[in-house]
């Protein structure tokens, strides 16, 4: 399944939530998985704290300079925050999908603004002129919401 098809499915599945906006904004992060990546993207969080598991979707551009070339790899992520009343730090689970890997992750977040995660990437395809993207991943990121309540 191509990233375009995956993106279309996510847009169709989550479009019914478009009018109940809660948190949306930009994100930036660093990840290390077979190399160093800088990530920039947009996120949308559905009703933070309304239920035990709060869903979030995000679209990112993974940027890396490898083998004398600059590469940009698109990514779609689905996150579930396990929120609890009165807590500022809570765990999350996430799955990241690129045209080359599927990476399930777990981690901790502070108010969904600062995140630290670890995971393992499973190779589904190889990018030309790029080393295989697979194996353990570590990430640290910041999410800046545009509409913080």
Automatic annotation (TrEMBL):
UniProt entry keywords in alphabetical sequence:
Signal
Which stretch is the leader sequence?
Answer: 1-20
User: What domain of life is recorded for the organism?
Assistant: Bacteria
Listed name of the protein? Outer membrane protein beta-barrel domain-containing protein
């Amino acid at each position: 399944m191509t990233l375009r098809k995956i993106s279309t499915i996510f847009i169709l599945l989550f479009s019914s939530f478009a009018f109940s906006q809660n948190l949306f904004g930009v994100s930036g992060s660093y990840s290390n998985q077979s190399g160093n990546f800088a990530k920039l993207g947009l996120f949308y969080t559905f009703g933070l704290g309304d239920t035990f598991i709060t869903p979030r979707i995000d679209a990112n551009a993974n940027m890396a300079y490898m083998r004398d070339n600059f590469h940009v790899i698109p990514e779609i992520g689905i996150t579930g925050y396990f929120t609890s009343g009165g807590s500022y730090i809570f765990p999350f689970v996430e799955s990241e999908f690129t045209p080359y890997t599927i990476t399930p992750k777990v981690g901790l977040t502070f108010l969904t603004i600062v995140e630290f995660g670890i995971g393992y990437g499973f190779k589904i395809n190889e990018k030309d002129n790029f080393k295989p993207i697979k194996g353990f991943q570590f990430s640290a990121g910041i999410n800046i919401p545009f509409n913080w309540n």
